[in-house]
Amino acid sequence: MAKITAAEVNKLRKSTGAGMMDCKKALVEADGDFDKAIEVLRKKGQKVAAKRADRDSAEGVAIAKLNADNTKGAIVSLNCETDFVAKNEDFITLGNDLAELALGVSSKEELLKTEYKGITVEEKLTEQTGVIGEKIEIGSFETLEAPYVGAYIHAGNKIAVITGLSKNVEGAEEAAKNVSMQAAAMNPIALNEEGVDQETIDKENEIAKDTLRQEGKPEEMLDKIAKGKIKRYFKDNTLVNQIFIKDSKQSVAEYVKSVDSELEVVGFKRVGLGE
């Protein structure tokens, strides 16, 4: 049996993030072979992952990243089972690394197949499931491209937003961040009226009419009054029409126009954990 040194254990720990005892056991099982020890830990991860496949992974971190010229943004949520793990520095670092990788791919499936530290992201998640003892997986994956993209991550990494603007102008960075903060706080369902699906509109229309009937309004007036309520619904729930949280005298669209008369919000993506 090969003699296992503290330096070898520490090297394996740094490479995998596994605990000292797990690393030592893996090296003993692998008879001191470093690569085989990594494989031992990965197989352990596969076993743990299989056992915890049905567990709820509603905790975690939502991380947003931007490319160098602010023309693309990405959000990845890395999910786990407990808030304790979500606050672990190594876990948060992994979330940040995956969000960086997301800037170079177009889907969650592609991200899972991407190489990360000599193995695929999918293999890394399985490995970390074994190391941590909790189900670790990528939850949400979002990307956005625009002439200018900004981001905001709410304290605690529970909400992340990326916002696209129509131009890269002076003040675009602050504007994109402010609009992203708006989306984080107010959770709009769409960018504007056109982004609201017909099923939602029909549902809100029926709710409005039922409420009006209960209030005793005449049947012939329901359509007209309901239209007004739908208009209010759009104002409250679409990003550009919402009242700007930093200045209640203007809408989000009006705020953006105050930065530059031709500036518009062209898109946003929001990921909130546990919502």
UniProtKB/TrEMBL annotation:
Top-level taxon of the source organism: Bacteria
GO molecular function annotation: translation elongation factor activity
Region annotation (Involved in Mg(2+) ion dislocation from EF-Tu) ranges: 82-85
Entry keywords, A to Z: Cytoplasm, Elongation factor, Protein biosynthesis
UniProt cross-references to Pfam families, sorted A to Z: EF_TS
Subcellular location: Cytoplasm
InterPro entries found in the cross-reference section: EF-Ts_dimer_sf (IPR036402), Transl_elong_EFTs/EF1B (IPR001816), Transl_elong_EFTs/EF1B_dimer (IPR014039), Transl_elong_Ts_CS (IPR018101), UBA-like_sf (IPR009060)
Entry's Gene Ontology cellular component terms: cytoplasm
Positions of the Translation elongation factor EFTs/EF1B dimerisation domain: 73-275
HAMAP family per record: EF_Ts (MF_00050)
Record family assignment: Belongs to the EF-Ts family.
Role of this protein: Associates with the EF-Tu.GDP complex and induces the exchange of GDP to GTP. It remains bound to the aminoacyl-tRNA.EF-Tu.GTP complex up to the GTP hydrolysis stage on the ribosome.
Name listed for the protein in its UniProt record: Elongation factor Ts
